[in-house]
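// run 5 | inverse folding | seed 20
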């Protein structure tokens, strides 16, 4: 893999770009109708599933024109003006603070009834009537009420409600609208302004320039929208679940409404009868409330209560919002890169749902609407981008691992590394391995008697057979050095039985070497044999080298010892020598005879060594067993300084098997020691003077 595309700097830049890009995409997506619509739905849920604030709307009431009231008149359109007059009179007598008449009074009806309503409006002196905004020839104008009512009212406001184009719900109130050169307030905003001693223009429609703190968003160039902080469903769906009190007009007309229920309150009058058209969807339009529509006057009442209580729906400030987006995107990136998708996806979903669940009590207690969908979008964009990156890099990494290790490991082990690439890194780690060194005895003579082309062919055949044995027994091929092979077990894949595998491979190597020698030396005097040394110990193993060129190899004294044992075979006429550390791990499965206690070149501490003979259940014949018994007796006599006895045992062993190399070596050594006995400090350790 090329470092330029996988170095820390490149990754930092790439991951930073993924996080920032995901946040930018999430922010842009939040401006679309789809994403913003989903976010609005999550806010609807939070409004529906919270406990309403009982203090919300405590100064607001609604007189709803209900069917029993309307049934008292032979017509419903226009709304009977004398009925409205009677209701306004009730509110005047109850000393209502302000009155908002959410009924269009554009055209005159009957003179008597119209006059009665106008008189009631003048008598009250605190009533705002409504109008609507119209487009005429591309210009917005106010469709004013009949002059009789306009002159009698304290002011005119707009009853327009901004409807969401996606789901036709009313979630916001627009505080003011521009109509030509003037700014006209909405009904709820107009009532708040009047209560705060604002004055309308002489036309009773325009809002003059006002102090910015009187009502933010109102004034010249106004038009701000705020979210209505609905606290409950419409009265027609669940009476009493909304803290804003709604009274039927029929009760007001019957004179059964206690005055104290209306005294000092902002009271809105509006349609709520069955065939009225002024109904809309709100956040409470749901199966929970029978998909009930909310009368427009109740929407204005909720908007008015929102303004009066200052319980506006709040959102995190932009810096905090974007910082949170960055955190969410970075977290998703981390999970995608560090965890498998099987674990990362549930973790990410769990974190999101925990956050979303926490947003409900936060909203209920503070009116702070924690964004949900933008965070989910940022997490998804970041997670998907990181997953794509990981997929691409892992594919490249898998190809690199296969290319790098397919010649050194069995296919099964290569697949394990592909699935667990963290086992490989530039640098080494210390762990226990079993290391095997081989060497070809007679290679020098062979190279002198064989043409270069033939020599290369023979070596290739030899190495191929030996390598297949290493791989078959789960070993890692380290390297070829001339005619030598270096292999090890227990890395990069852990193997509890690494010493057993190495021993089995070594014995099979000797069999392969014998067969190869028979074919190679057929009809000639040439002969080659393989010597093997095995040791188990702690070494450093890993990708040793530079970033551009390295080998997966072992280094350390224990690896050097395996090489020394391979060479020590020459001293004893053996072909497979193992250290005591290896022997102790394999003694229950393999048969070995103790050879000596050696002090190899470069090491002060002596090492007990053994000749590996075969598997423990193998039979070798009567002569072999007899020669082994004689050798063991001779070795004990040697260690006890019984030179004469040792000589006799080794001579007898050679009479049984005259080609037993260790018996020959010990016979020569005992004869020499018998003639020149060692001092009292002799410890039986034999020092090798060559590698």
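// decoded
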């Amino acid at each position: 893999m090329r470092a330029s595309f996988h170095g820390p700097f490149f990754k930092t830049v790439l991951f930073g770009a993924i996080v920032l890009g995901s946040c930018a995409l999430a922010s842009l997506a939040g401006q679309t109708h789809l994403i913003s619509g989903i976010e609005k739905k999550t806010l609807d849920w939070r409004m529906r599933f919270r406990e309403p604030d009982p203090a919300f709307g405590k100064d607001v009431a609604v007189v709803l024109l209900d069917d029993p009231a309307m049934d008292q008149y032979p017509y419903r359109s226009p709304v009977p003006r004398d009925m409205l007059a009677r209701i306004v009179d009730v509110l005047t007598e109850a000393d209502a603070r302000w009155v908002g008449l959410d009924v269009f009074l554009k055209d005159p009806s009957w003179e008597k009834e119209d006059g009665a309503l106008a008189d009631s409006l003048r008598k009250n002196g605190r009533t705002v009537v409504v109008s609507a905004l119209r487009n005429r020839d591309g210009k917005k104008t106010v469709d004013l009420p009949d002059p009789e009512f306009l002159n009698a009212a304290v002011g005119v406001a707009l009853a327009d409600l901004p409807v969401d184009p996606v789901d036709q719900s009313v979630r916001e109130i627009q505080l003011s609208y521009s109509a030509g050169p003037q700014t006209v307030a909405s009904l709820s905003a107009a009532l708040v302004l009047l209560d705060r001693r604002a004055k309308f223009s002489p036309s009773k429609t325009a809002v003059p320039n006002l102090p910015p703190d009187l009502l933010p968003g109102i004034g010249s160039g106004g038009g701000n929208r705020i979210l209505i902080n609905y606290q409950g469903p419409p009265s027609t769906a669940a009476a009493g679940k909304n803290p804003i009190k709604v009274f039927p007009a029929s009760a007001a007309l019957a004179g059964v409404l206690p005055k104290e229920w209306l005294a000092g309150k902002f009271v809105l009058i509006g349609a709520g009868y069955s065939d009225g058209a002024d109904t809309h969807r709100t956040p409470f339009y749901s199966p929970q409330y029978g998909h009930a529509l909310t009368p427009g006057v109740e929407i204005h009442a909720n908007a008015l209560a929102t303004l009066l209580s200052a319980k506006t729906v709040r959102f995190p400030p932009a810096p905090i919002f974007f910082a949170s987006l960055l955190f969410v995107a970075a977290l998703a990136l981390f999970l995608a890169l560090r965890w498998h998708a099987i674990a990362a996806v549930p973790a990410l979903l769990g974190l999101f749902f925990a956050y979303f669940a926490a947003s409900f009590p936060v909203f209920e207690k503070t009116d702070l609407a924690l964004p949900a969908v933008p965070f989910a979008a940022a997490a998804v964009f970041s997670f998907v981008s990181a997953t794509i990156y990981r997929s691409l890099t892992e594919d490249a990494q898998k190809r690199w691992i296969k290319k790098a290790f397919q010649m050194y490991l069995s296919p099964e082990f290569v697949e394990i590394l592909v699935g667990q690439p963290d086992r490989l890194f530039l640098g080494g780690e210390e762990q226990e391995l079993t290391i095997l060194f081989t060497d070809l005895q007679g290679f020098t003579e062979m190279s002198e008697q064989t043409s270069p082309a033939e020599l290369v062919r023979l070596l290739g055949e030899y190495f191929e057979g030996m390598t297949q044995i290493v791989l078959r027994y789960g070993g890692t091929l380290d390297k070829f050095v001339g005619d030598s092979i270096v292999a090890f077990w227990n890395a990069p894949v852990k193997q509890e039985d690494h010493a057993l595998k190495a021993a089995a491979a070594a014995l099979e190597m000797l069999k392969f070497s014998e067969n190869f020698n028979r074919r190679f030396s057929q009809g000639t005097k040439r002969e080659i044999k393989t010597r093997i040394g095995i040791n188990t110990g702690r070494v450093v193993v890993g990708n040793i080298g530079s970033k551009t060129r390295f080998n997966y190899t072992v280094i350390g004294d224990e690896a050097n010892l395996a090489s020394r044992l391979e060479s020590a075979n020459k001293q004893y006429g053996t072909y497979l020598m193992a250290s005591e550390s290896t022997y102790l791990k394999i003694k229950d499965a393999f048969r070995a005879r103790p050879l000596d206690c050696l002090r190899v070149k470069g090491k002060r501490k002596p090492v007990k060594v053994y000749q590996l003979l075969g598997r423990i259940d193998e039979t070798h014949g009567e002569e072999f067993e007899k020669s082994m018994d004689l050798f063991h007796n001779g070795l004990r006599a040697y260690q006890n300084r019984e030179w004469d006895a040792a000589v006799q045992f080794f001579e007898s062993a050679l009479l049984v098997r005259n080609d037993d190399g260790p018996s020959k070596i010990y016979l020569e050594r005992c004869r020499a020691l018998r003639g020149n006995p060692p001092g009292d400090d002799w410890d039986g350790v034999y020092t090798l003077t060559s590698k």
